[in-house]
Amino acid sequence: MLKSARKQEKDPEGRMPLAAHLRELRNRLLKSVLAIMVITVIAMWQYDAIAHFVTGPVIESVGCSKEPSGPRTHPCAQVVANGLLAPFTIMLKVSLTTGVVIATPVWLYQLWAFLAPGLHRHEKKYALGFVGAGAPLFLGGAYLAYAVLPTTAGALVGLTPSDWANFFPADEFFDIVTRMVLVFGLAFELPLLLVLLNFGGVLTGSRILSWWRFMVLGITVFAALATPTGDPLTMGLLAAPIVVLYFGAVGICLFNDRRRKLGNPDAGLSDDEASELDLTPDEVGEIEPVASRRMLPEQASGEAGENGAGRRGGYDDFT
């Protein structure tokens, strides 16, 4: 079932039929899902520790004290589980999110392995760099979401009137945490995608740089839609690092274009664009006289016509 399409006879240009591409995609997806599920099962055994690790900073930031009730000096909140099946559903969500985050190097490598046959041999050497940079970027975005959540929760809970009580439904709370972790992690992969397209010859650094206004606007809109809390603080904390990483990716792309142009002056040309030709005429040197022979050897003693020209078979030798 998992027989790889790569074990067939390879095309020197990396071409594969559609059925082989679909079979290869299936195999890569199955390997990624298998890695995620193995880590998810392991995370279920440590569910209690993971749940406390996720909710700990938020509870420390906005949690209510367990001391006897008295006048509160600031708003607080408690995390509660609503319903009989809520603890089991939450365990699945927390474990699955843990599996996706920890298995990042595996599914990133499978993604690269699926795209690699379409690249040239000298471009495949960037595989380790792609995986080596993609995993830290995803984990960095996930950690940023984890670090921002207590500040965001504190800002939102602070809007609660003093005579109200806050209860965080655990399932809703973990939905927010899961969404923020995945969105922040995937958003941090945008610069890596731009660099990958540049190294593959799809986009140039100057073209990516010319989009900077639309990219900044798009990142801001994306941050506003992606953050589940919708507050400006969380939106800014998501948008600012992505903008910085975007300009960092532009710098890498421009450097790569310059390096590629030094090695090949025609590297910036498209496949259907002709290279520049030098049409400057060269100087003509001294003309060397060449003696011409006006008749064939066998005509040297041939018959002469009326005009004295040699003829053969009734025709002039010049015809």
From TrEMBL:
Q: Where in the cell is it found?
A: Cell membrane; Membrane
Give GO terms: molecular function aspect only: proton motive force dependent protein transmembrane transporter activity
A biological process (GO) annotation for this entry? intracellular protein transmembrane transport
Q: Where is this region: Disordered?
A: 266-319
Record field: compositional bias (Acidic residues): 269-286
What Pfam families does the annotation carry? Answer: TatC
Please give the superkingdom of this protein's source: Bacteria
- UniProt membrane topology term: Multi-pass membrane protein
TM spans (from-to): 29-47, 94-115, 127-149, 176-199, 211-229, 235-255
GO cellular component assignments: TAT protein transport complex
List the keywords (alphabetical). Answer: Cell membrane, Membrane, Protein transport, Translocation, Transmembrane, Transmembrane helix, Transport
**Record's NCBIfam families?**
tatC (TIGR00945)
Q: Give the protein family.
A: Belongs to the TatC family.
Provide the function of this protein: Part of the twin-arginine translocation (Tat) system that transports large folded proteins containing a characteristic twin-arginine motif in their signal peptide across membranes. Together with TatB, TatC is part of a receptor directly interacting with Tat signal peptides.
Give the record's subunit note: The Tat system comprises two distinct complexes: a TatABC complex, containing multiple copies of TatA, TatB and TatC subunits, and a separate TatA complex, containing only TatA subunits. Substrates initially bind to the TatABC complex, which probably triggers association of the separate TatA complex to form the active translocon.
The name of this protein is Sec-independent protein translocase protein TatC
State the organism named in the record. Answer: Streptomyces lydicamycinicus
